[in-house]
Design goal:
1094 residues; alpha+beta; Rossmann fold; eleven-stranded mixed β-sheet; nine-stranded mixed β-sheet; ATPase-coupled intramembrane lipid transporter activity; transmembrane helix; ATPase_P-typ_cyto_dom_N; transmembrane
C-alpha cells in the first residue's frame, strides 16, 4: 500500500469488516544483539575471522586423528580468544541497550478513554493522541492537532535533526486547533491519510478528513503540520498531536545510515600477512611430508628392527597415511599463525581508547565535556588520515551571530556601546553625535525596516534564564531586565533585531496581525498584511505592512545578489559590502492604494491555488519584489572557534588536505574560509559555480584544469556549489577529481547532506584509496560522518545526532590537531610494531620445530613440551608487547604537536609496508636458526654436559632452545622500546623471571594427571650445567648484537626526521625518559648518539 490510514485516537469505523493496518511499535533499537541471539550471532561473526576459523579447524583435526600435540594446545587459546572478544562486544552492546532503554522508557502523556494517562515512550501506538509540554522532545512523528495558542501554532527547534538551531513554526488544521481540552479531543472524529514512512525530513504529503455535524471536511497536510521525533517544543506551553510514524519508522530513525562495520587499514594488512603465513605453513607441512616418504623409501628407515609395524599399519591405504601425516605436520607447525594476536589487538584497542578520554588537553572546560570514543577499532586510523572533510557552521564557527556594522544610505556605521558611529570618527565624538544622526528619515526608516522585516517571536517568561543553561538561546543579551527573550528562525535575524533594540528601535511584540515597535521610547503599531517567506531560490524575505498613518509599505531583506538587481533608487554604488561578514541588504517599496489592491489579489489567488501553487507564488513574489528603494546593508559576523586557523595550518603541514563542505551560501563560505586560513590571501581561487548544463560544466572544468597546468607555481583553491557539483559528479567525475587533487584547498557550498556523503565516497573510492576523516556537529553531517573512514562528531550547541553516529566525539575543532598528530601517531606506531612483532616471535617459535624434524626422521616428534606450546603465547611473551602497545611513545607529545611534518613519516601505512614485514620475518627465521643450531653445536656431538658425566636427553635440548627463545624475544622488544615506565620494566623482567619460576615448579613435581612425566627435573638439571648457561648467554648476544649495530649505523648515516627530533628533544644524550641504553661514542665524529632503538 502506498499510503497509511491513521484513525485519530484509534476510533476505527463501526462496520464489521475493517481490518486495522499493522504498524511498528515506538521502540528505538540501536543495539546489535539480544539475549537470545548473542551467542550464535557473536560466534558467527568471530569465526568469520580467518585466524579463528583456522584454529577451529586445527582443533577439530587434533580431536579426530592421532596428532603429536594434545587438542588442548590449540583449544585453550582459541577458547580464551573467543571469550575475551565476546565479553568486550557484549559490554559495548549492553551500553547501547542501556541508552535505548533510557529513550524507550521515558515518561509520556497519552489521551486514552477520556483522560490523560502517563505511560512509557515505547507504548505509544500509531493513532494515539500524545501531549507534549514545553522543552520536551517529541516521542514520535506527530501531526499537530492543537496547541495552547488560539491560532493553533507552535514553535519547534530541530537542532538535533538537521543542525539548525533556529525556531520553526508549525501549524494545525483549523478544525482541530479548537480542541484544546482532553474532552474535546475525545469527541474529535478525524482520519489522517499520509504516505508511507520515508527518510526525507522536509517532505510529508497527507490529508486529514474531519467529520463535523455529519459532513466531512478535507484539509491538506504538509511538512509544516508534522512534528518530528527528536525535535524540541519551544515557547509553547503544550501541544496535542496524533502519532503517525513510530519507532524505527520515524524520520529520525530512517535517517540513521545503518552503521556498517568500519575496518582499519592495519586490520587489512594483518589479513594479508596471515595469508602469507598460511602459505609458509602449508609449504613447510607439504615439504616435511614429502621428505618423510623420501626418507622411508629405504627399508632400514621404513621399518627399523626396534620399531616393527603392526598388521593394521602394513595394510592401511598409503593415500590416507599421506593425508594423516600431512595433517599431523600441520598441527605440529600451526603455531606459526598467532591466535593471540587478535586478542592482544582487541585489548590494545579497548584499553588504549581510554587515553583519549583521559587526555586533559582534549577536555573543554566551559561545557565540561571530555573527548569520547564510540568505536575503539579505528584508533590507528587516526594516524593515517589524508583528507579531512569539515562542516562550517558550528564546527569551524561558534554558530553565534554578532552585529558588527551597517551601511545606511551609503554611509558606513559601526556599533560602539549601543550607539551607531559613522566610520572614520573617534568613538567619543561619534557617541556624542550619534543621537543626532539617527533622527533623519533614512536612518530611522532603515532601523524600522530591520526591526519589522523578520519572523522573530518573543518570549516573556524568565524561568528558564534564571535556572541557567536551561535554554540554548539564553545568552546574555543586554535586555534581560525587560524579561524579554527573542526567538528567531535564523541566528542572523536574532542578532539584527537585538542590535536595533540596543540602538533604540525595539521590536516589542506581535499580537495576531499587529506588530509593535518602540522608537526611542515612542510606541508605534503596524498592521501585518502579508509575509513573503524566505526560500533558498529567491534568497530574500519580505513583509507588507500598513503604517500607523495608513500607507502600505513593503520591507525586504536578503543576500546582496538577490536584492541589488531589483533596486532602482538609493545609494547602490556606495553601499559598500562588508568584507568577511554575512551581509544582508535591506530595501523598501511604497505602494499606492491601487497597486496594493492588485498585489493583494495576486497573492491571495496564488496562495489558494491547488495546481502549481509553488510556481504561481514565485511569480507573484517576483512581481511584488521589484522597483525597490535601497535603504542600506547590515554586516553580521559568525564568530570563529578559537585556534581554528592554527589547527588547519597544522593539518596542512602534516600533509592532510582540508575540504570544507557547507550548506551555507557562497559569499559567506568564502569569507569564513579566508578568515580561518583554509584559503590564503595569496591563493588563486578557482570557481565552478552556477553551472546549468553538462556541456557548460565540462567546458569550465577543462578551463580550470588548463589553468592548473599553466601556473603550477602558486597554490590554488577551488569553490564549488551543490548544483554544479551534482553535474560534475554525474558525467565528469575523473576530470573533477583531477582538478580537486591539484588544488590545495577545496570549498563546497550549498551542499545537501547526502551530497556531502557522495563527495566523501568519491574520494574514498578514487584509485589512490586515501584514508578520509569527516567532522561535523549537526544531523546534516551524519551521512558524511558515517561514510568516511573515521567520523568525528563535535559536541555543539544543540543536538547529539552527530556525536551519536560518530566514531570519536570532541568538544571543539581545535582538538582535532592533537587527536591526529599525537594520539593517531602513537596508536599507529604501537599497533604496527605489535603486529610485526607477533609474527616475528611466532616464526622464532616454530622454525626450530621444523628444523628438528630433519634430525628425527620426520617422525613428528615435538621439540617442546605441550605445556610450553600452550603457554608461550598466552603467558611467557604476551604481557611485554601488550604494555609496549599501550605506552610506547617514539617522540615526546609536545614535539609531535609542534612539528606536524612528523605525521608524514607514518603516512600511507609506511610502517606496515612489505619491506618492514619482510625484515621482521627474515629476522625471525635468522634468530630461529641461531637458537636451534647454537644449541645443536653445543650438544650435538657430546651430551655429557654435567660434571658427573650424566647425559642430556631430547627434552633438555628442546628446553634449552625454548629458554634461549623466550629471553631473546623479550629482549628484542626491550630494544624496540623508547619510553620506559615502571610497567614496562615490571612485565619485561617479570616475564623472564616468571618463565624460570614456572619451569622449576612444573619440572620439580610429579603431576598425577599428566600421562607422561617427560619434563620431570629436566629444567633443574639443565640449569645446573655451567656450559648450558654459557650457551644461553652466547646465543642471545649472537642474535641481538647485529641488530644493535645495524640500528646505530642507520641512525647515524640515514636518520629519519622522527629520529632527528628525538635527539633534539633529548638534547643529544637521551634526556627524555627513553631507552637511551647504549651511548656509543663514535670516535670519528666525537659526538654522543643517544641510542634509542627504532
Amino acid at each position: 500500500i502506498d499510503t497509511r490510514t491513521v484513525y485519530v485516537a484509534n476510533r476505527f469505523p463501526e462496520h464489521g469488516h475493517y481490518v486495522p493496518q499493522r504498524f511498528a511499535d515506538n521502540r528505538i533499537i540501536s543495539s546489535k544483539y539480544t539475549i537470545w541471539n548473542f551467542v550464535p550471532k557473536n560466534l558467527f561473526e568471530q569465526f568469520r575471522r580467518i585466524a579463528n576459523f583456522y584454529f577451529l579447524i586445527i582443533f577439530l583435526v587434533q580431536l579426530m586423528i592421532d596428532t603429536p600435540t594434545s587438542p588442548v594446545t590449540s583449544g585453550l587459546p582459541l577458547f580464551f580468544v573467543i571469550t575475551v572478544t565476546a565479553i568486550k562486544q557484549g559490554y559495548e552492546d549492553w551500553l547501547r541497550h542501556k541508552a535505548d532503554n533510557e529513550v524507550n522508557g521515558a515518561p509520556v502523556f497519552v489521551v486514552r478513554s477520556g483522560s490523560l494517562v502517563q505511560t512509557r515512550s515505547k507504548n505509544i501506538r500509531v493513532g494515539d493522541i500524545v501531549r507534549v509540554a514545553k522543552d520536551e522532545t517529541f516521542p514520535a512523528d506527530l501531526v499537530l492537532l492543537s496547541s495552547d495558542r488560539p491560532d493553533g501554532t507552535c514553535h519547534v527547534t530541530t537542532a538535533s535533526l538537521d543542525g539548525e538551531t533556529n525556531l520553526k513554526t508549525h501549524y494545525s488544521v483549523p478544525e482541530t486547533s479548537v480542541c484544546q481540552s482532553v474532552s474535546q479531543l475525545e469527541a474529535l472524529q478525524a482520519v489522517v491519510e499520509c504516505q508511507q514512512p520515508e527518510a526525507d525530513l522536509y517532505r510529508f504529503v497527507g490529508r486529514m478528513t474531519v467529520t463535523q455535524h455529519g459532513e466531512e471536511i478535507v484539509r491538506p497536510l504538509g511538512p509544516e503540520n508534522l512534528l518530528l521525533r527528536g525535535a524540541r517544543l519551544k515557547n509553547t506551553k503544550e501541544i496535542f498531536g496524533v502519532a503517525v510514524y513510530t519507532g524505527m519508522e520515524s524520520k529520525m530513525a530512517l535517517n540513521y545510515k545503518c552503521k556498517s562495520q568500519k575496518r582499519s587499514a592495519v586490520e587489512k594488512s594483518m589479513n594479508t600477512f596471515l595469508i602469507i603465513y598460511l602459505i609458509i605453513l602449508l609449504s613447510e607441512a607439504i615439504l616435511s611430508t614429502i621428505l618423510k616418504y623420501a626418507w622411508q623409501a629405504e627399508d632400514k628407515w621404513d621399518e627399523p628392527f626396534y620399531n616393527q609395524k603392526t598388521e593394521a599399519e602394513r595394510n592401511s591405504s598409503p593415500i590416507l597415511k599421506f593425508i594423516s601425516d600431512f595433517l599431523a605436520f600441520l598441527v605440529l607447525y600451526n603455531f606459526i599463525i598467532p591466535i593471540s594476536l587478535y586478542v592482544t589487538v582487541e585489548m590494545q584497542k579497548f584499553l588504549g581508547s581510554f587515553f583519549i578520554g583521559w587526555d586533559l588537553d582534549l577536555y573543554h572546560e566551559e561545557s565540561d565535556q571530555k573527548a569520547q570514543v564510540n568505536t575503539s577499532d579505528l584508533n590507528e586510523e587516526l594516524g593515517q588520515v589524508e583528507y579531512v572533510f569539515t562542516d562550517k557552521t558550528g564546527t569551524l564557527t561558534e554558530n553565534e551571530m554578532q552585529f558588527r556594522e551597517c551601511s545606511i544610505n551609503g554611509t558606513k556605521y559601526r556599533e560602539v556601546n549601543g550607539k551607531l558611529v559613522p566610520e572614520g570618527m573617534t568613538d567619543e565624538l561619534g557617541v556624542l553625535l550619534a543621537n543626532t544622526f539617527l533622527r533623519t528619515g533614512e536612518e530611522l526608516l532603515f532601523l524600522k525596516a530591520v526591526s519589522l522585516c523578520h519572523t522573530v517571536q518573543i518570549s516573556y517568561d524568565q524561568s528558564d534564564c534564571l535556572v541557567g543553561g536551561g535554554d540554548p538561546f539564553s545568552h546574555v543579551n543586554g535586555f534581560s531586565s525587560n524579561h524579554m527573550e527573542y526567538y528567531a528562525s535564523s541566528p542572523d535575524e536574532k542578532a539584527l533585531v537585538e542590535a536595533t533594540k540596543r540602538i533604540g528601535v525595539a521590536f516589542t511584540g506581535s499580537n495576531g496581525d499587529t506588530m509593535e515597535i518602540k522608537t526611542f521610547g515612542k510606541s508605534e503599531k503596524y498592521k501585518l498584511l502579508h509575509v513573503l517567506e524566505f526560500d533558498p531560490n529567491r534568497r530574500r524575505m519580505s513583509v507588507i505592512l500598513q503604517t500607523p498613518s495608513g500607507g502600505k509599505v513593503l520591507f525586504t531583506k536578503g543576500a546582496e545578489s538577490a536584492i541589488l538587481p531589483f533596486t532602482t533608487s538609493g545609494e547602490i554604488e556606495k553601499t559598500r559590502l562588508h568584507k568577511g561578514l554575512r551581509t544582508l541588504v535591506v530595501a523598501c517599496r511604497h505602494f499606492s492604494p491601487e497597486e496594493y489592491i492588485n498585489v493583494d489579489r495576486q497573492l491571495n489567488s496564488a496562495r489558494t491555488a491547488l495546481q502549481q501553487r509553488e510556481e504561481r507564488l514565485q511569480e507573484a513574489f517576483n512581481y511584488i519584489e521589484r522597483d525597490l528603494q535601497l535603504l542600506g546593508a547590515t554586516g553580521v559576523e559568525d564568530k570563529l572557534q578559537d585556534k581554528v586557523q592554527e589547527t588547519i595550518e597544522a593539518l596542512r603541514l602534516a600533509g592532510i588536505k582540508v575540504w570544507v563542505l557547507t550548506g551555507d551560501k557562497h559569499e559567506t563560505a568564502v569569507s569564513v574560509s579566508l578568515s580561518c586560513g583554509h584559503f590564503h590571501r595569496t591563493m588563486n581561487i578557482l570557481e565552478l559555480l552556477q553551472q546549468h548544463s553538462d556541456n557548460e560544466c565540462a567546458e569550465q572544468l577543462r578551463r580550470l584544469a588548463r589553468r592548473l597546468k599553466e601556473d603550477h607555481v602558486i597554490q590554488h583553491g577551488l569553490v564549488v556549489d551543490g548544483a554544479s557539483l551534482s553535474l560534475a559528479l554525474r558525467e565528469h567525475e575523473k576530470l573533477f577529481m583531477e582538478v580537486c587533487k591539484n588544488c590545495s584547498a577545496v570549498l563546497c557550498c550549498r551542499m545537501a547532506p547526502l551530497q556531502k556523503a557522495k563527495v566523501v565516497r568519491l574520494l574514498k573510492t578514487s584509485p589512490e584509496k586515501p584514508i578520509t576523516l569527516a567532522i561535523g556537529d549537526g544531523a546534516n553531517d551524519v551521512s558524511m560522518i558515517q561514510e568516511a573512514h573515521v567520523g568525528i562528531g563535535i559536541m555543539g550547541k544543540e543536538g547529539r545526532q552527530a556525536v551519536r553516529n560518530s566514531d570519536y566525539a570532541i568538544a571543539r575543532f581545535k582538538f582535532l590537531a592533537k587527536l591526529l598528530l599525537v594520539h593517531g601517531h602513537f596508536y599507529y606506531i604501537r599497533i604496527a610494531t605489535l603486529v610485526q612483532y607477533f609474527f616475528y616471535k611466532n616464526v622464532c617459535f616454530i622454525t626450530p620445530q621444523f628444523l628438528y624434524q630433519f634430525f628425527c626422521l620426520f617422525s613428528q616428534q615435538t621439540l617442546y613440551d605441550s605445556v610450553y606450546l600452550t603457554l608461550y603465547n598466552i603467558c611467557f611473551t604476551s604481557l611485554p608487547i601488550l604494555v609496549y602497545s599501550l605506552f610506547e611513545q617514539l617522540v615526546h607529545p609536545h614535539v609531535l604537536q609542534n612539528k606536524p611534518g612528523l605525521y608524514r613519516d607514518i603516512s600511507k601505512n609506511s610502517l606496515l609496508s612489505f619491506r618492514t614485514f619482510l625484515y621482521w620475518t627474515v629476522l625471525g627465521f635468522c634468530h630461529a636458526f641461531v637458537f636451534f643450531f647454537g644449541s645443536y653445536i653445543l650438544m650435538g656431538e657430546d651430551t655429557t654436559l654435567m660434571g658427573n658425566g650424566q647425559m642430556f636427553g631430547n627434552w633438555t635440548f628442546g628446553t634449552l632452545v625454548f629458554t634461549v627463545m623466550v629471553i631473546t624475544v623479550t629482549l628484542k622488544l626491550a630494544l624496540e622500546t623508547h619510553f620506559w615506565t615502571w610497567m614496562n620494566h615490571f612485565v619485561t623482567w617479570g616475564s623472564i623471571a616468571f618463565y624460570f619460576i614456572f619451569s622449576l615448579f612444573y619440572g620439580g613435581i610429579i603431576w598425577p594427571f599428566l600421562h607422561t612425566q617427560d619434563m620431570y627435573f629436566v629444567f633443574v638439571q639443565l640449569l645446573s650445567s655451567g656450559s648450558a648457561w654459557f650457551a644461553i648467554i652466547i646465543i642471545i648476544i649472537t642474535c641481538l648484537f647485529p641488530d644493535v649495530v645495524k640500528k646505530v649505523f642507520y641512525r647515524h648515516l640515514q636518520p629519519t626526521s622522527t629520529q632527528k627530533s628525538q635527539v633534539m628533544r633529548g638534547g643529544g644524550a637521551g634526556a627524555l625518559k627513553t631507552s637511551a641504553k647504549w651511548e656509543c661514542v663514535m670516535a670519528s665524529h666525537l659526538q654522543v648518539v643517544a641510542w634509542e632503538p627504532l
